[in-house]
Amino acid sequence: MTIRTIRPNRGQHYRPRMHCLQKIEAHMVEMQDPKSGLKGAEQKLNVTTIPHVITGQDIIAWLLNKMKVTQEEAEAYGTMLVAYGYIYPLQNHRKLVMCNDGSLYRFQTPYFWPTQKWVAEDCDYAIYLAKRNIRKKGVLEPFEQEHYTHLHTWLNHKWDFIVMQATEQYKAGKERKKPDRVVLDCQERAYWIVNRPPRRTHSALDYGTDRLIDPTVEEKISFDQHRRMNIFYQQAIMRSKVKSSVSLGALVKFVNTYKNHDPFLAPCLPSNPWVTDNDTYWTLNIRRVDQCTKMRVERWSFSFFELLSDQRGRDDFKSFLKKEFSGENLAFWEAAEELKWGSAAAIATKAAVIFKTFLAPGAPRWINIDGRTMGLTVKGLDHPHRYVLDGAQTHVFLLMKKDTFFRYLKSPVYKEMQKRALNPELHNFSEAQLEQNARNRSLGVHPITVWEQEEEERAKAAIASAPVDVKAMMSKIDRK
Amino acid sequence: MRGVTSARQQHQLAEAGEPWWRQRESERKRPNTRTSSTIPSPLCASSLKMACQALQSGESLATLKNESDSLKKKLEEERAKLHDVELNQVAEKVELVSALSIRTRRVLKGHGNKVLCMDWCKDKRRLVSSSQDGKVIVWDGYTLNKEHAVTMPCTWVMACAYAPSGCAVACGGLDNKCSVYPLSLDKNENLAAKKKSVAMHTNYLSGCSFTNSDMQLLTSSGDGTCALWDVESGQLLQSFHGHTADVLSLNLAPSETGNTFVSGGCDKKANVWDMRSGQNVQSFETHDSDINCVKYYPTGDAFASASDDGTCRLYDLRADREVAVYQKDSIIFGASSVDFSLSGRLLFAGYNDYTINVWDVLKGNRISVLFGHENRVSCVKVSPDGTSFASASWDTSLRIWA
Fold it and tell me: How far is it, in rounded angstroms, from Cα A48 to Cα A356?
């Protein structure tokens, strides 16, 4: 199998940022609009006058007005504009932030915007550095010097060409008028600060790894792809849909049911461990507690799935089923889950065990499902695959959900649970106590230890009880 | 003779299951549809056969394209017919969310480079995170202890996941593989020695997730496919073809049946898949740019997606349409990651402009903005009991907010 290591250059560099850059450009155009945009002034800088200079304050004020955001957001966005190279600072050219004061900025010429179709290539950068070298007579800034030395090694074969280009550009530059030259210098310098930042500083243009798809190429869809799409659309059109009012109503209902259980919306009782550094909330909600909290018990009543997802709830349900002598349904469901999610190698063995325990005529924990499902399942077990028990499992699950679950909620077991449930007091720590808590954060139990304990318990239960604890056998076969 | 498929034709059918994306080499393992571990779907086989027949007389690429376009329009009309109410209308009577006071409670420092992905453990306090320099660290978020550290042989580890039992972690990235590392209580043990290579793709791994047990792993890759693997043997159990570009993210449904998952990719589509048959069940294409992250609503009947176009959208699976768009003119930069709070009322979204926005799912407005990170937020995940959420960022730190 070949692993592709060389990625063809498909102009990928612009891809992840493309969408946001389009929006930024729209803003930049508006900002420079003669009527509604920012008005630049002239600024004297070392003898020359630079036109169209704006202050940071003005930019941020314009952003606040235009985008209707908070001060913080406007400053953050302003900094982004500088970081991406659309606006560049005049005074401290290396620090790419937008300061909300009188610091001076200029708009970058569209020629140097990030969305232009060419890459900021090393060769161009080398030419720029060489030119600067000539101008400054060998005195470059430290990070530029680093880059220069690096490029000198790697582009050595092209160095004559680079120096020649640099000299040409330098001579051409000398022929320009002084103000134009200064402006062009500033722009070029800003462009390269953005595209070749000093080592170990982060660049806003960093977008991560390339994605494989080339967005500029028109997608060619062949005829068989069209056919498949047509089949898919036809199936989608025929599929039954639900009215929006019904499905959205269900979403709203869910939110309303759970809103008191959401730690972000209602306070955790006794307190959120992350906030107060006291983990009573977690210790109260582990599996092996005698008394559960009120919230936990209430949550079990929301749906059968909630009851089963919480191990403590499942244990409680199991004890209720034991009293009713109908524990085989849940045991079968658990065994079927183990089969479905277990390792592929163990499927055949597990299926055989399940058949012997639950499905064979006269089995010790025979489940009562309708004849048709039973027939299909038993037939499927001749060639067991992962989903062979799906039909029977769904049947049993629905049975439990529609009948047994509601009886459980009305049963004395559950009512007893509700009566004994704890309602912990809301913690009210003082500053000193909070600091104390922060120093004494408990380590809790490592999940591996918990897992090992559970395994031991399951093994013990398997040996002790009869009929055979199917779940334990399943896990043992899996773990082997 | 129609109706009878010879062995050769069957082989051709299997070949026809090739990904649609023509630029890729087909050197990956073929799904083994003839073993007893997957169920062949009769509808799938016959439709593939239909699709691969040569162009009939009177058909051409243009006519097929027109048919596609008209069917797509018809599907939109059908969807719109049952759309009788908007989400914020249904949510009118729901009371507003009171001001949230979410602050950073923990800052996890230790990675030397961009943190790309993270996942919580079921014990609600431990988490695993992976970074650009190949390091995968398992933390106890509560005490800030680093419990395990693994150095992967590749850089850009873009996906990591914690096993449901808490005994293993899976991770992968530019090595095109997903490997499972069993964790141990012994601090001095070299975890890399027990590493198990499970998944193998033909391009970078973008996302991985364990199913309900430690034994199965679901992965998504830059080669445009998702795949379900058996951890023990490394066997490919099911593969999912349908995306025409890189798949960037996947999420398993939280339902009691747990048989579906959703994936989002660079083709701007979010697809819902059936794990049993490998079929693409539903597809949504309303984003303007790559979908970076998809996450199910707690009920499993809806999901949210975050995209490079700066919006997050909510799709309802039963109504089969997009029902909400979370966007603002001032949000320019792409959203990289989303997650729901426990009740599904809040949507936490991490963006490329270094912020995290908290949206009201029902009313559609933004509740608050969280600043704190100094570089892109790459991953946002709510803890299993909903008490906090963690954010991983390119500024090499992770923050836990509550």
Answer: 95
How is residue B135 written in tokens? 């390091």
Residue in chain A closest to B236 (alpha carbons) equals A344
Residues in B closer than 8 angstroms to A477, CB to CB, are none
pLDDT at A214 over 70: no
Q: What is the CATH number for A61?
A: 1.10.10.10
How many residues are listed for chain A in this entry? Answer: 480
Q: Select the residue of B222, B237, B345 nearest A344 (Cβ to Cβ).
A: B237
pLDDT in tens, B149-206: 999 999 999 999 999 999 999 999 999 999 999 998 887 888 888 999 999 999 999 9
Whose tokens are 């697809």? That residue is B271
* A96/B164 Cα distance (integer angstroms): 44
With beta carbons under 8 A apart, name residues in chain A contacting B39: 385, 387
Going across the sheet that includes B321-326, the strands are B291-296, B302-307, B312-316, B321-326
- Residue A86 in any domain: the answer is yes
**B216: nearest CB among A230, A341, A445:** A341
Do residue B310 and residue A19 have CB atoms under 8 angstroms apart? yes
Number of domains in chain A: 2
Q: How would you class B388 by CB atoms within 10 Å of its CB: exposed for 0-12, middle for 13-18, buried for 19 or more?
A: buried
> Smallest CA–CA separation between A135 and chain B, in Å?
36
Residue B27: list chain A partners with CB under 8 A. 1-2
Q: CB distance A394–B257 less than 8 Å?
A: yes
Per-residue pLDDT reduced to its tens digit, B306-334? 999 999 999 999 999 999 999 998 899 99
Q: Is residue A103 part of a domain?
A: yes
Alpha helices in A239-389 (DSSP H): 244-258, 273-276, 280-284, 294-300, 304-309, 311-324, 328-341, 347-354, 371-380
- Domain, as residue range, for A34: 9-118
What CATH number is associated with residue A278? 1.10.167.10
User: Who among B37, B59, B203 is closest to A385 (CB)?
Assistant: B37
Element (H, E) at A441: none
Considering the domain boundaries, does residue A142 fall inside one? no
| Residue contact A337–B212, C-beta within 8 A | yes
Q: What is the pTM of this model?
A: 0.87
Residue A13's contacts (CB-CB under 8 Å, 6 or more residues apart) are A119, A207, A210
Residue A453 lies in a domain: no
- CA pair distance A187, A95, nearest whole angstrom: 15
> Which residue, among A203, A209, A210, A207, has the nearest Cα to A80 in the 3D structure?
A203
**B102 to A264: CB separation less than 8 angstroms, yes or no:** yes
ipTM of the complex: 0.87
* pLDDT tens digits for range A231-253: 999 999 998 889 999 999 999 99
Q: How far apart, in whole angstroms, are the C-alpha atoms of residue A107 and residue B78? A: 49
**What is the distance in angstroms between the Cα of B175 and the nearest Cα belonging to chain A?**
8
- Say yes or no for a CB contact (<8 Å) between B90 and A237: no
Q: A256, B94: Cβ pair inside 8 Å?
A: yes
Query: For residue range B3-52, what is the model confidence (pLDDT) as tens digits?
Result: 343 444 444 433 333 333 433 333 333 333 333 333 333 345 565 666 56
Structure tokens, B233: 């043997």
> Are B353 and A77 within 8 A, CB to CB?
yes
Q: Is the peptide bond before A16 cis (omega within 30 degrees of 0)?
A: no
